[in-house]
Amino acid sequence: MKPILEIRSISKKFKINQGASPYLSLRDRLSDLLTIGSARKEDFWALKNVDFDVNPGDSIGIIGKNGAGKSTLLKILSKITPPTEGRIVSRGRIASLLEVGTGFHPELTGRENVYLNGSILGMKRKEINHRFDEIIDFAGTEKFLDTPLKHYSSGMQLRLAFAVAAFLEPEILVIDEVLAVGDAEFQKKCLGKMEDVSKSGRTILFVSHSMTAIQSLCNKTVFIDKGVSTGILSVADGVHRYLMGNILTKSGEERFETTPGVSRAAQILEARLLDNNGRVSNQLLTCDDTFVEIVWENTKGVKITPSIELVNYDGVKIFWSGDTASDWDGAGKMDKGKYRSRVCLPANFLKAGEYSLILGLYTQSPYEYHHIILNTLHFSLTDPMDRRSLARGEMTSQFEKFILLPLLNWNNQKIE
Amino acid sequence: MTDSEEYVIEPANGGLLNLKEIVQYHELLYFFSLRDIMVKYKQTVLGVLWAVLQPLLLMLIFTMFVGRSLRFSSGDISYPVFAFSGLILWLAFSSGIINAGNSMIQNSQIIKKVYFPRLIIPMSAIIVSIIDFLVAFVVFIALLIFYQQNVGWSAILYWPLALLLTIVASLGLGCLLAALNIKYRDFRYAIPFGIQALLFLSPVIYPVSILESDWMQYVLAVNPMYAAIILFRLPLTTVQPSLPLVYVSITSGLLLLIAGLTYFKRTETYFADLA
After folding, report:
1. Are residues A374 and A366 in contact, defined by beta-carbon separation less than 8 angstroms?
2. B186: nearest CA in chain A?
C-alpha cells in the first residue's frame, strides 16, 4: 500500500527582521537602499528536514512545544505557505479544521454564508446543494436561514461554521488544537466528529497539547522540537518525549528576572523543588515528600501570602494552596525584606506523572495578586514500584483515570 | 482507498499562470464576486442606484462647468454623451483597480487559512466593477436615445472590445497594486493620487484633438485606457482615430497585464507569510 502522504525533507525558512516593524514599508525599503551594509535580516528555520510517511487510515498526533514548528507544518500541508525545501506528495484531498468559519461575512444571511464558506473550503456547489439540509439540521439554525449572520449569537455562528466543515469529506483531515477554543460542548462535538472521521477510515493529522486527547484519538505520533522531527513514533513514545522534554531541559530550580519599570508590592525571586533530603531536583518520587521553596521579596511592607497551584500535563489544575493557616489577619503589616517560604507536597498523595506549578504572591485583604508565575518548575513524579509504595505499587497502571492517588488511613474491622 | 489524484507540494518556483487551476476554482470566483456585490448593495442605502448616480453626477458637473466653459468641441458627439461614455469606462477602471488593490488585504484572514489560487481575489473585485459598469451602461443607452445620438453597427464589435480592454487594463494594474499593497503597507496611500492624475491624462472629459503636439498625444496613448475610450466612442462618430496611437495603448495595456500577473504570481506564495 502506498502512503497517502509522503513528506520528504521539508524545511521552511523565515527571515526575521530584527528591530523592524512586522510589515514592510516602501519608505523603509527606500531608506534601506541609501544605508549600506545594514545586515538586519536573520534566517530562522521553523522546520528542518521533516520527513515521514502517513498511511491511509492513520491518525497521527503531532506533538511539540509552542513554537516547535507544528503549525508551520500544517500550513505547508494545507498549501497556505510553500516549503523552502523538500517535497510532499499527497494522494488525497487535504482539508483542515483550521478553517472553521473562514470567510463568514456578517452582512450575508446564513444560507449565503453556507454557500460561500463551503466553496472556500473547496466544496462544489452541487455538493453543497446536496448536503444543505443536513448542514442546517446539524447546526440547528433553520429558523434563521435568511437572517444576516450579524444577528446570530456567537454560539450559533460557531455551530453553523462547524456544520459546514463537518460535511467536508476530504481523504486527509488536518486539525489544529486552535479548535479547542470554543466552549466545552463545542469541543466535545469536535472530538466526537474526529472520532467518527477516524473510524470511517480516513486519515487525520492532529496537533494538540493535550496528551489525553492524543492518547485517545491517535495511533501514531510525530514529535517536533525546534523544527526537527523524530519521524513516526508510537503514541506512548511521543507523549513521553514531550513530557520529559520539558523536565530534562530544566533542573528543578528557577530564577526570575525583575521586570524593569514594574514595581510590585512583592516579587518572586527564586523557586526550587527539593526532595526528601533537601537536594534540588525535578525528578521525584511519589512515596517521598516533595518541597516547593519560594524566595521572594516584600518591597512595600504590606501583608503578603505565598501560594501555589499544581497543574498536571493535561492542563488540569489539581489544587490551589495558600498559607491560610498560619498567622495572617488581612490588612496587617509585615516587614519589608526577603523571605523564604516552603511548602510540602506530601508523600503518597499525588499519582505518578508530570506536573508544573503556578506560583503566586497575594494579599488577603483587600484581595489582590501581586505576582504570578505561570507554568514553571516542571517535574515528574515516579512510583518506585517497590516496597516503599507497597500500598499502591503495581496497581498504578490501572489508575490512569484518577487525578489524585492519596494513601488514606483505613479502618477495617470484622463486625459479623 | 480510492485511487485519487496525486497532489504535489513543492517550494515556490514562481511558475506561470495556472489557468487550469483558475477554471477549476471558477465556483469560488463566482461566490466571491456574489459576496462582494451583495455586501456592497446591502451596505449602501442607494444600492444599485449608486452605480448609476456616480457617472451621472460627474457627467452633469463636467458638462456644466468644463464642457460649457472651456467650449472644446467634442466633434459630432454631444458633450454629455461624450463625457458619460468616457466616465463609465473610467469609473469601471478606477474602481476596479482600487478594489482589486485593496482586495488582498481585505481578505487576508481567508488567505492565511485556506489555499486557493490567489488571483481569484483581485479577479472577483474586478468583476464587481464590471457589474457596476453594466448597470450604468443601461443608462448610457437611455442617454443615447435621449440625445438622439447616431450609433453605428460597429458598436457590436467595438463596445465589447472596449470593455475587454478595460478589463485587461484594470486586471493588470489591479494585480500589481494588490501585490504591492500586501508587500508594502504604505503603498496604498499613493493609489488614489495616481488614479486622479491618470484621469486628467485620459481622453475622458476632453477630446484628444485639443492637444496640439504629437508627442503629447503619444504620452497620452501610453495610458491603457486610451484605446478603450477611443474605441468605445468610435461607433458614435465619423471622426477616425489615429490607429498607431490606439495600437500603442493596446500594447501598453497588454504589457501591463503581463507585468501585473507576473509580479502577482511571484509574490503570491508568500502572501500568507506577509499578510
Report:
1. no
2. A25
Looking at this predicted complex, what is its ipTM? 0.80
Q: Which residues pair with A266 in a beta bridge?
A: A298
Q: Helix, strand, coil proportions of chain B in percent (round to 5)?
A: 75, 0, 25
Q: Is A99 in Cβ contact with B114 (below 8 Å)? A: yes
Q: What b/e string do you get for A315-349 counting C-beta neighbours within 10 Å, with b at 16 or more?
A: eeeeeeebeeeeebeeeeebeeeebebeeebebbb
Neighbours of A233 (CB within 10 A): 20
DSSP-derived secondary structure letter, B100: H
The pLDDT tens digits of the residues spanning A123-165 come to 888 888 998 988 888 788 788 888 888 898 877 887 788 788 7
Indicate the SS3 state at residue B134: helix
> Mind listing the pLDDT tens digit for each residue in A225-265?
888 888 898 888 888 788 777 677 678 888 888 777 777 88
Distance CA A160, CA A154 (A): 10
Parallel, antiparallel or unpaired: strands A317-322 and A290-298: unpaired
CB contact under 8 A, A82 and B27: no
* Residue spans per domain, chain A: 5-242, 253-399
Handedness of CA A240, A245, A247, A251 (dihedral sign): positive
Q: What is the mean pLDDT of residues A188-214?
A: 76
- What is the residue whose three cell numbers read 456567537? A154
Q: Is A77 on the interface with B (CB under 8 A)?
A: yes
Distance from the Cα of A183 to chain B's closest Cα (Å) equals 22
Distance (Å) of CA B14 to CA A77, A181, B254: 19, 37, 20
Task: Name the superfamily (CATH) of residues A5-242.
Answer: P-loop containing nucleotide triphosphate hydrolases (3.40.50.300)
Q: Is the dihedral of CA A392, A396, A401, A402 positive or negative?
A: positive
In the structure grid, which three cell numbers stand for residue B197, read together? Answer: 492624475
Q: Identify residue A239 by its one-letter amino acid code.
A: V
Q: Would you call B42 and A94 a contact, using CB atoms and an 8 Å cutoff?
A: no
Contact A207, A102 (CB under 8 A): no
Dist CA A306 CA B24 (whole Å) = 63
Map out the domains of chain B as residue ranges: 19-263
Rounded CA separation A12/A368 (Å): 45
Among the ranges given (A192-196, B133-137, B266-270), the one the predictor scored with the smallest mean pLDDT: A192-196
Task: Record the cell numbers describing residue A146, joined without a space.
Answer: 435568511
How far is the alpha carbon of B123 from chain A, nearest alpha carbon, in Å?
15
According to the CATH classification, is domain A253-399 in 2.70.50.60? yes
Q: Could you give phi then psi for residue A249, rounded to 5 degrees?
A: -80, -10
Residues A64-93 pLDDT 10s: 887 788 888 988 888 888 898 999 998 888
User: Is the separation of the CB atoms in B171 and B126 below 8 Å?
Assistant: yes
Q: Are A400 and A347 in contact (CB under 8 A)?
A: no
Structural contact between residues B214 and B242, judged by C-beta atoms closer than 8 angstroms:
no
**Amino acid letter for position A106:** P
